Structure formats: structure tokens, C-alpha cells
């Protein structure tokens, strides 16, 4: 069903329970075994506090050790949001579907945070549809008289979070590097300590990606990443640079101005940064009308200062979600 650095996931038939399950088979490398044992611990915590399986996190059935491979048995879920985007040629979702996915994502994150858990690796690949069933509909927006375009629409919008191998219990403030690059919060790059708010930044990146069909920060390098952030959200406040206790100074001149482009910056990098625009304009390229509620929600989720960023619970109270209740 899938493959990653950790190993692979197989679809299997559980003869005892008489159900189709997914089994994550972890490489027999010590580092991956340790991560798997942490994930099992987190999964048990999530499942014990959610017997009905309604809080939006994948449910563990059991686990076993086979020839030095940790094997974790899960409920079988559908494709990821990334798979769905890819299968639709990276065309954006409608605002109603984005609202539905965004609300469920935040509800799952709020549940994790209430148990003192930080996911630290939220991205479309780690958000799965509960059901693989979909219908094909005509995509009128992209259909011309020469070609009929179709798109896959899931029969159910229900989603669940997966992959808790990087999940950590809150230790007030951590300085290690977490998150897949494109979804990484500024405090992680600046080295000023991260906690629950780093998940909120990742969710905001996912929401923009669902609205546009494109990864917001397509980058592999810290300085370029910070330059992209400044392009979309404006300058990074100097007090946040000082909060890093020296770790972020290398990226700034006099703690104020981002040292970009520097002498190592390539023409491609400069073009990649300059292609980005302010958040409103960026969304406007893909949405006929940018809802002001969506813009104000994202601005508060993308707050540079993690202490002022919305929490998952606060985000769920935002007018953008209040217009509709969960199906």
C-alpha cells in the first residue's frame, strides 16, 4: 500500500478478526525499531482515550515482532490527501471540501494536544481518507470543447491522521529539528524552541495546499525558506531572532534584515522566492473569491510568534468553521 524510509505498508487479511487490515512493517534497523516502539506507545494512548475511533487518529489493532521487524496492525484506510491531489492533477479542492478537511484536521490535532502529544510531521501524505471509494465527475472548470476533464471526488470526506513515529510528549520546549521541510514552522528553523504551535503552522500549510493544489514552500534550504516566508507574510520580527539565543543570527544582518540573497544564492533560488506573493494574492490565483474568514484564519495560524499563534481549539471557534457544523 505504501513505502517509506521506515519500511513498507501491506494490505492483509486478518483471519481471526475477519477484516482487511494494513500492516506497517518496519525495517530491522535499531533506529527505526526505536521509533516504532515510540509510535506503538503513542497509538495505545490515542486508542485508549478514543474507544469509538471518532477522534480522527488511525486505530492500532495490535503489534508483533517478526524476525526483528516490528509489525504494527492498523485499521485499513483509504488514500492520502496527497494521493487525491495527485490523482486530480494537483487541481485545488472546492472551498467547502477544504473547510471540511481543515476542521477535521484541527479536531484531530486538538485531541492529540489535549493528551499532551505533538504530532510534529503533519503533511498531506499523513492525512488519509477513511474510505477509498470515490466517484468520477466532470470538472467543468477545466473542461474545454476539445477535452472533457474529470476528477475524483471521495464519496466520504472523513479523514484520519497517521504516522506517529515522530510524535513527542510536550517537554515545554524542544530544540531538535522536526517536520518535513515544506511544513516546518519558523521557530524550528530559527532554533528558538518549538511546542504545540508547530503543528498549527503545518495544518495552515496543508490548508493552503488544498486551496491551490501546490506546496506553499517548495524549498530545501533554510535561508531560502525564511525568504519565502517573508515574501508571503512580511518581515520576521527581530525579537524572535533574539529569542533563538544566537542560533538564528547567521540568517540575519543586525538581528533585523534577513541575509538574503547572500553570495551563495542561485538565480533559480531568487526566482523561486520572487514567484511567491502575499497570502491574499496567492490564494486569489486559485480561488475566484477569497473568503475573508479563510484569510483571517490563515493569518492567525501563520503567526510568526508561536506564543500568539491560534491553538487548534481556538481555530475551530473561528468564523470560517462556525458557518458549518460537522456532518
TrEMBL record:
Pfam families: Pkinase. It catalyses: L-tyrosyl-[protein] + ATP = O-phospho-L-tyrosyl-[protein] + ADP + H(+); L-threonyl-[protein] + ATP = O-phospho-L-threonyl-[protein] + ADP + H(+); L-seryl-[protein] + ATP = O-phospho-L-seryl-[protein] + ADP + H(+). The keyword ATP-binding applies. Keywords: ATP-binding, Kinase, Nucleotide-binding, Serine/threonine-protein kinase, Transferase. One of its GO terms (cellular component) is nucleus. Residues 1-321 form the Protein kinase domain. PROSITE patterns: PROTEIN_KINASE_DOM, PROTEIN_KINASE_ST. One of its GO terms (molecular function) is ATP binding. The keyword ATP-binding applies. InterPro entries: CLK_kinases, Kinase-like_dom_sf, Prot_kinase_dom, Ser/Thr_kinase_AS. CDD domains: PKc_CLK. Its EC number is 2.7.12.1. Belongs to the protein kinase superfamily. CMGC Ser/Thr protein kinase family. Lammer subfamily. This is dual-specificity kinase. It comes from Adiantum capillus-veneris.
